[in-house]
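Holo prediction — flavin-adenine dinucleotide.
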Amino acid sequence: MSEQQFDVVVIGGGPGGYVAAIRAAQLGFKVACIDEATNAKGGPALGGTCTNVGCIPSKALLQSSEHFEHAGHAFKEHGIDVAGLSLNLPQMLKRKDSVVKANNDGIVYLFKKNKVSFFHGRGTLAGKAGEGFTVNVSGPTTDTLTAKNVIVATGSNPRELPGTPFDEKIVLSNTGALAIDAVPGKLGVIGAGVIGLEMGSVWRRVGAKVTVLEGLPAFLGAVDQQIAKEAQKAFTKQGLEIHLGVKIGNIVKGDNSVTVEYADSTGAAQTAVFDRLIVSIGRVPNTIGLGFESVGLQLDERGFIAVDDECRTAVPGIWAVGDVVRGPMLAHKAEEEGVAVAERIAGQHGHVNFNTIPWVIYTSPEIAWVGRTEEQLKKDGVAYKAGTFPFMANGRARALGDTTGMVKVIADAATDEILGVHIVGPVASELISEAVVAMEFKASSEDIARICHAHPTLSEATKEAALAVDKRSLNF
Ligand code: FAD
Ligand code: NAI
């Protein structure tokens, strides 16, 4: 049992928390970060949902499964015959675990480098202490920390379907979906959102028959619908069976299978039997049992910690960032908020531009966007012009053998300022950065159209889409 005083205590060591801790330490504060996640050996597993059961392991499996699929089909077209191709799933999972561990260890190193004190255990707020707050830690050791500033970065948990709890054997959250030990013959996925599409893609590529059941009538309703339709076409061609507008009914779990009753989009009753079921219907903020009542911390109407635009709670000195507060549940959004809060504590003007946060779905083709969609602009009554350019007409995409999709640039009809960029296609995740930079600097479509892009690159499609805004693309 120890009692220690800090300037800043961060509860949660995910992308929001660990980055806030590092930035606060860089600014000269004495900083502690508390995280309760534990690895298979009982040691700390820093990095949060993102590192342990989110961004990193999903991308590791997406990469491995894509290699497997390419070796099976795409290599042939390149003149490479692969004989005796087989899947070593235990090795694929082992590699994923080692990628996770490298990231866990990386954060331990960064904490040491930046002199952030790490406490492995559960942190709970335990009332006011002088001008600050007390935070108790219970883990391998029991500690009491005090600090004038506390940053809550406790993240989120997967949402359960009422009456169907996760058992991570048959009914899987993201945690179980990343660790299935044998390829299921039939895999059901409820929710055609980001997790449903990414994890559905992984298991389809390695041989599962995947059926995705989505409640809403539109596919990827938040995505520009021209892009979403192109993606849906590609996923369907790959064999992902997607049913939109369904209403999930009874779910009955057996020892080795699960039966899902649902009404399809016409209202007709359907029954499907799956070997495994991934439920990916969104996530809920992690706010239970954190001692909020001891300091009077309030939640908003949706159950998130209530904060203003600058991540201040109603209790001066307590801040909250990342998935536990409003806004997109994305690692880079959490990080930006963490940095901005550390800078605000130091009296600086930390800033997060919510209009230029990029979104990426790491399927094949990848989907990435920043800014507003055509549907949003119509709803907002903004006059715009749009230009698209298909990867089919891009030399590098042809050389890669990956010509699905397009780049779409939307600009203000009067000022030409870029209002949104939407991409479906190869490495859209990397291509979107150019659009984010352009929008951050309030560039016009003409600016991108006049910038020299290397040839042959996929990024030429962005330049061509910008040229297409004024109907003057050169290669299509
Ligand atoms: P978290 O990462 O959830 O971290 C919270 C941490 O707090 C956890 O380590 C938890 O153990 C700890 N904690 C909670 N309560 C306590 C307590 N009382 N005491 C001590 N510790 C506590 N986002 C992207 O941007 N890109 C992606 O590719 C991406 N892929 C994803 C894939 C999946 C399958 C999932 C589930 C999510 C993905 N996300 C992705 C979302 C991303 O993981 C989250 O937005 C991000 O992790 C949020 O960061 P955070 O710091 O707010 O919370
Ligand atoms: P999501 O919000 O992306 O998608 C959930 C889907 O489930 C929606 O399409 C919704 O309409 C549907 N749904 C909800 N209730 C339903 C029901 N009862 N029946 C049928 N369908 C239903 O949530 P998801 O996929 O769980 O991911 C959670 C969050 O994690 C994402 O919103 C994102 O913020 C983050 N994430 C980000 C990734 C990335 O950046 N690449 C990857 C994975 C997750």
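READOUT: The two ends are 70 Å apart (CA to CA).
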